[in-house]
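Can anyone check this?
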Amino acid sequence: MSWPLGSHVLKGAGARDRSATLCLWGGGWLAADQRNVETLVRWEKHLSVRRGETLGLGLGLGPFESGNGTTMARRVLARFSKPIVVRTQSDVANAEGIVPTILGGDLSFLDQEFRSADGFHRAQSDSHTTIISFPRYGKHWIVQRPWLTEDWYRNYVESIVRRQLVKGTVMHVQFDKGQNGRGDNEYWSHLNVEFVSPNTIDEAAAHYLTASEVYAGRLHAALLAVNLDIPTVAVAYHHKFECVEETGVQVVGLHEKPDHIPIAKPPVGRLVQEIRDRTQEACRVVAPWLKG
């Protein structure tokens, strides 16, 4: 179980009528090669009974290199009636020859709550708090990143924690509670850190606002830090982290095996604004297609 970072943007959005337009927004899980294609099976079954159009906004696509699930993914993507708005240039390349795309961005960049005068503001403190947020290990990660074994992953995160504990408090903020309570906090329960489990994006943001820096292996944990202008390092297990890298913060593991733990840097305002403008324009293109 998890909650969407863009919930301020599309609060209450949804369509129950099968003849209405269905807009799938956010997430990189919809169409990619994975050993377990149960998700794709469910989506193909769901979309096959729909009479209305299916649109995609802020999705991640691919990669389609390993051969697992490619045919199923193509059938799912064939259900989309208009170009899919994607988050990164890699998504555009992955979709070539399968489905038309529009380069936008993650919908969290349009969340006005993070930028308004009445929105979120970072607390000033003399103490040093590091927030970390890392997912449970995924066996499919190693297909695209051969170094990303579970042992390597756990050792790298543990090294981050040891270094940051010297500076002050370290807090793990859970973004996914998992099934039957087996979430991220349980996976990392051996770490000598404080564990919190927010129920909403607002609760998560309240914790983040106490942070001096953030180390994130969950995409939306990194994006939350970027939107709050917090120095960040992201640890990538998928190309979707490109949408974090293009904000100017440090992203390791995206293109090659990390050989060190970098110093956290804040996002570059100009780059973030360019992504917001691009995403807003993509939404303007999609808006006339929505109905029902």
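Reply from J.R.: I decoded it. The first helix runs from residue 38 to 48.
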